[in-house]
Design goal:
Strand content: 25-35%
Strand order of the largest sheet: 1-2-3
Bound molecules: zinc ion
Distance between the termini: 22 Å
Oligomer: single chain
Number of domains: 2
Structural class: alpha+beta
Largest sheet: 3 strands, antiparallel
Number of strands: 12
Length: 199
């Protein structure tokens, strides 16, 4: 799973494999990362090491090999059905139980951002299914890229619903407030929710 991502580099947690757990943080530049459109999942027999099953498993992003020998692959073939699954996002409600905000879990958001950055570099033939924050707007953001993408996910979903006006106000105010944090020391506020730091 990706731990951090910026315009030039990533870091991730290498789990190793069943026999030799690794659990170390690795890092690499985006140049070392490869998008693979047709990944084939191969299942090996535990005793003989022979392939017992091999099947197409969608697009992935292959990270460089860790010093432990293991490789990490990230999901790069998300569908809208994946994002609507309850396990994909966090949901925040107000005191009346009314949902105020959904944010995509950061692991998914960072995978999408990485896919998008590779696409911008010509290293992936197509962009991720969710539109990502455009390059010119990213330059203005002070929020971490993965966090920005997790909020952007809500923005995209709400373009398909009737809550657009509410969310537009929320997103604009949150981004504006996050910019103030670095210069004026104020905290971003969610309309009707309270201090964002409680999330
Ligand atoms: Zn490792």
């Amino acid at each position: 799973m990706l731990q951090t991502i910026d315009e030039q580099s990533i870091s991730w947690l290498c789990l190793g494999d069943e026999e030799t757990p690794c659990n170390t943080i690795q890092s690499a530049s985006l140049e070392e990362v490869e998008y693979q459109a047709d990944y084939t999942l191969t299942i090996l027999d535990a005793e003989t090491g022979q392939a017992i099953q091999s099947r197409p498993d969608g697009a992935v992003i292959a990270l460089p090999q860790c010093t432990c020998g293991a490789r990490t692959w990230l999901k790069a073939d998300y569908s809208m059905a994946d994002f609507r699954r309850r396990s994909s996002y966090f949901e925040f409600s107000n005191d009346q139980g009314i949902v105020q905000l959904r944010t995509l879990k950061h692991g998914h958001a960072r995978n999408l951002v990485l896919h998008h950055l590779l696409y911008e570099r010509g290293k992936a033939p197509s962009p991720p299914i969710l539109p990502m924050v455009p390059q010119e707007e990213r330059a203005q953001l002070v929020m971490e890229l993965g966090l920005t993408a997790s909020l952007w996910f809500t923005f995209h979903l709400l373009t398909q619903s009737t809550d657009m006006a509410m969310f537009e106000r929320y997103f604009v105010e949150t981004v504006a407030a996050s910019k103030q944090v670095s210069t004026q020391g104020t905290r971003p506020q969610l309309p009707g929710v309270g201090d964002v730091s409680t999330i």
